[in-house]
Amino acid sequence: MELRQLNYFLAVAEERHFGRAARKLKITQPQLSQHIRQLEQQMGVKLFERTTRRVDLTAAGHLLLDRGRAIVDEVDEVRAEVYQAGSGVTGTLRIGMVGSAAYTVMPGIVRASGEAYPDLKLELHGEMLSPELEKALVDGDLDAAVVRSPPAGPEVGFRIIGREPLMVAVPARGPLGRDGTLTAGDLRDERFVSYPPGTAIHRLTQQICRGAGFECRVAQVVRELSAALCLVAAGTGVAVVPVGARVVRMAGVRFCELAGAPETELALVWRRGDYSHLVANFVELVTALEATEVSAPEAP
Fold first, then answer.
1. What pLDDT, on a 0 to 100 scale, did the predictor assign at position 296?
2. What burial class does residue 279 get, using C-beta atoms within 10 Å of its C-beta: 0-12 exposed, 13-18 middle, 19+ buried?
């Protein structure tokens, strides 16, 4: 049984008249009658009792009417869902992000995505390093990510979506930065909680220290913003962090502005050669957001 035959049957069953059903289907009555006969032959039963005055359903016809309507409705739903998925308005996107992006750009991105595509699910993966995010994209484990620009590999496409100044997190129990501001020279005798080599924050921390005429003394290397702040609170050292870290309320941490601190760029990245409608719509939505500049959150 073909779906077309089922639709022909439903038209006759609902109209109880071959002529009206044929006009509704925009085919001739003889064509319709032939399709119904073929369907009855395939099913091995009569579906209609035909007289010169009326057309009635047999018991088998009544059963097919109920089940046939459900089948057609289900096919219509599947067709609509497949179209939406292919058009990038429904489905699941796996989105990764560097730690501070969760506090700065991501809330606005998630909100805008929900308003524009309410049937699109965002599966969020946070507290990852940019090199890890790029590898996950290339390996197919993520669909898009917010990283610190510029991406390293040619396999990754990107667009700049924001900028974050850097600041310094220091132990609140010490005297450092009590007035809320520091210079790079003030950090000369401090030990640092640092991100791993190869990351943007590590590179910029080295740049800040060398610009002030000293080498950064690393006390401990961490991979997550939360771990860095935990170690700062414990007195292990100071940490150069993105300004978005200020929204994290952690006892024992003081955030200080750093004079002349560089900015980091945040970029939305995706895998080249896999630019699906789902990813394309997401990239377009994110880059169209008005707030492309990441402002410093208020200190807690």
1. 42
2. middle
Average pLDDT, the chain: 88
The pLDDT score that the predictor gives to residue 85 is 62
Domains and CATH numbers, the chain: 3-87 (1.10.10.10), 91-162+265-288 (3.40.190.10), 164-263 (3.40.190.10)
pLDDT in tens, 237-286: 999 999 989 888 899 999 999 999 999 999 999 998 776 888 888 988 99
Residue 36 has pLDDT above 70, yes or no: yes
C-alpha separations of 2 from 6, 48, 101, 154, 221 in Å: 6, 18, 52, 48, 65
